[in-house]
Automatic annotation (TrEMBL):
Residues the record lists as binding Mn(2+) 2: H154, D187, D250
Binding, Mn(2+) 1: D187, E222, H500
Active site: D156, E221 (proton acceptor)
InterPro entries in UniProt: ArgE/DapE_CS, CNDP/DUG1, Cyt/Met_Dipeptidase, Peptidase_M20, Peptidase_M20_dimer
Cofactor binding notes: Binds 2 manganese ions per subunit.
Organism: Wickerhamiella sorbophila
PANTHER family to which the protein is assigned, alphabetical: BETA-ALA-HIS DIPEPTIDASE, CARNOSINE DIPEPTIDASE 2, ISOFORM A
GO molecular function, one term: metallodipeptidase activity
Annotated Pfam families: M20_dimer, Peptidase_M20
Protein name, as recorded: Cys-Gly metallodipeptidase DUG1
This protein's UniProt keywords: Hydrolase, Manganese, Metal-binding, Metalloprotease, Protease
UniProt GO BP: proteolysis
Family: Belongs to the peptidase M20A family.
Length: 531
């Protein structure tokens, strides 16, 4: 293996617990959700656009929301400053920029009045030896009478080059109408700035934040969150002692209109197949037909991993997937989304499934295998007649309950090796795990979800859909297990934001109303009875 797997804290999240609790919801109706809210928003098969009649004392957000509106230009400037630092964690050349971004973030926190701001160093990255960017930690308040919330986000981004097809410079935040374009706008600099914006608005108003905050911002999320597991373990009884809830804003609504609160993510196991042949690239006229070509071997191996309809061809994986129960299946009926919405998100009509339930299940509760690219192959424009000497094929598998990552590695690596043997090639092939992160599924009925739902309703005027996320946030399960606390995902951006893609964007309303939602969540959390 190229790198050690993240620690084995995960494992079995009992999905039945969730579904049993959902069944309980239906049986007990309003009593499940909250004693304050008379309508069961999570009720399976019902449209939750119905307005809930809340009898809770809703905090008066008028001043806070007005202040956030007033600060819009400053907040956009903050996001522009963040986007301008190309903190791409994937390659060595950019690593100093990731570190710079961490330092910038720490400085912003200090300027706003956060205390105990530190850059927790993680040492060298195990398999590359490159220095890992620090984890930025800080505090806001240490009142023992208040609840304490850990806010996690990441300040690294995916790579981006203008020539990939961006219409604007990826590291210059560009506003066109009500849309902010730039790498990291939605993933995850916008949401991280959202938390800073909340601090600024409270500070300027002289308004108390009713919970203590602990910040934990990492710079390696897009590259496997290396080092963070160890830090959380090490600091669980020190810096991270006494955390009552964790909130992460690092995913997206399903579509463009309806807000969501998220209670699950898929895991990801990322692999690399290396095929080594000649000592150097060769002239295909001179050597084509008489040498085993690494690209040909790799293309064959790629074709044996997944079908064009998305079916994973590696035996044994399907059998690891938790069976779909009737109760879980029914949850999908309540979601406000459709195939045209999904087509809008991707900008084409190329969805494999023909109904939204199957498509969402494919995204949330079944594994998928994606081919990402080939290092070492000719890719520029033109027609170079080369036989690449060594190629590295990259692919990943999104994991779901109950796929054990170590078991998955065994199945994948043995299968690739066996397939390679059938070729009779004299090249040398290896398949290795690059990084892995666990899946996570939570029970969306607890106090932190109630607070998130109320905040969403207060800002957006509708009850959120409860969703799972097809992407991965590798550290989520570690927070839950190591800090023995519940985690909620409260996203800011829309489903068409183009995270990881060209022309990534964040809509101004999502940035501003999203900041309000994060702020309101903290107020509702302080009022909510912890269960
Ligand atoms: C959902 C989150 N914003 C995200 O984009 N996560 C990444 C994490 C990752 C793991 N390996 C590389 N990146 C993702 O889901 O791809
Ligand atoms: Zn992210
Ligand atoms: Zn991402």
């Amino acid at each position: 293996m190229l790198c050690k797997r993240s620690s084995q804290w995960h494992r079995y999240i009992d999905l039945n617990k969730i579904f049993i609790s959902n069944a309980t919801i239906r049986r007990h109706g309003a009593t499940w959700w909250s004693r304050d809210i008379q309508i069961n928003r999570f009720q399976i098969g019902h449209h939750h656009r119905q307005v809930s009649s809340s009898t809770s004392t809703m905090p008066n957000f008028e001043a806070l929301f007005k202040k956030i509106d007033e600060l819009k230009p400053a907040f956009i400037k903050r996001l522009a400053d963040a986007v301008a630092i190309p903190s791409v964690s994937a390659d060595e050349a950019h690593r100093p920029q990731v570190v710079k971004m961490g330092e910038w973030l720490a400085e912003e926190l200090k300027q706003l009045g956060a205390t105990d701001v530190e850059l927790k160093e993680l040492g060298p990255q195990p398999h590359t030896g490159w220095p890992l960017p620090p984890i930025v930690v800080g505090r806001w308040g240490t009142d023992p009478a208040k609840k304490t919330v850990l806010l996690y986000g990441h300040y690294d981004v995916q790579p981006a080059l203008k020539e990939d097809g961006w219409s604007t410079e990826p590291f210059e935040l560009t506003q066109k109408g009500e849309i902010l374009y730039g790498r990291g706008a939605t993933d995850d600099k916008g949401p991280v700035m959202g938390w800073l914006n909340v601090l600024q608005a409270h500070k300027e108003l002289g308004l108390e934040i009713p919970v203590n905050l602990v910040f934990c911002f990492e710079g390696m999320e897009e590259s496997g969150s290396e080092g963070l597991d160890g830090l959380i373990e090490q600091e669980a009884d020190k810096y991270f002692k006494g955390i009552d809830a964790v909130c992460i804003s690092d995913n997206y609504w399903l579509g463009t209109k309806h807000p969501v609160v998220t209670y699950g993510v898929r895991g990801v196991s990322y692999y690399e197949i290396t095929v080594k042949g000649p000592a150097a690239d060769l002239h295909s006229g001179l050597f084509g037909g008489l040498v085993h070509e690494p690209m040909v071997d790799l293309s064959y191996l790629f074709s044996k991993l997944v079908t064009p309809k998305g079916e994973i061809l590696i035996p044994g994986i399907k059998e690891l997937v938790a069976p779909l129960t009737k109760e879980e299946d029914a949850l999908y009926d309540a979601i406000h989304f459709d195939i045209p919405g999904l087509e809008d998100n991707i900008g084409s009509k190329t969805i494999i499934q023909d109904n939204i339930k199957d498509a969402l299940q494919a995204r949330w509760r079944y594994p998928s295998l994606s081919l990402h690219g080939v290092e070492g192959a000719f890719y520029e424009k033109g027609a170079k007649t080369v036989i690449p000497a060594t190629v590295k094929g990259k692919f990943s598998i999104r994991t779901v309950p109950n796929i054990e990552p170590a078991k998955l590695d065994e199945l994948v690596i043995k299968y690739v090796e066996d397939q390679f043997k059938t070729l009779g090639s004299k090249n040398v092939a290896t398949c290795e795990l690059v990084h892995a992160g666990d899946y996570w599924v939570s029970d969306p009925s607890n106090w932190s979800y109630r607070a998130a739902a109320k905040a969403t309703k207060a800002v957006w005027g509708v009850d959120p859909d409860f969703t799972r996320e097809g992407g991965s946030i590798p550290i989520t399960l570690s927070f839950q297990n190591l800090l023995k606390t519940s985690v909620v995902l409260l996203p800011m951006g829309r489903g068409d934001d183009g995270a990881h893609s060209t022309n990534e964007k964040l809509d101004v309303p999502n940035y501003i109303e999203g900041t309000k939602t994060l702020g309101a969540y903290l107020h509702y959390l302080s009022e909510e009875t912890q269960d």
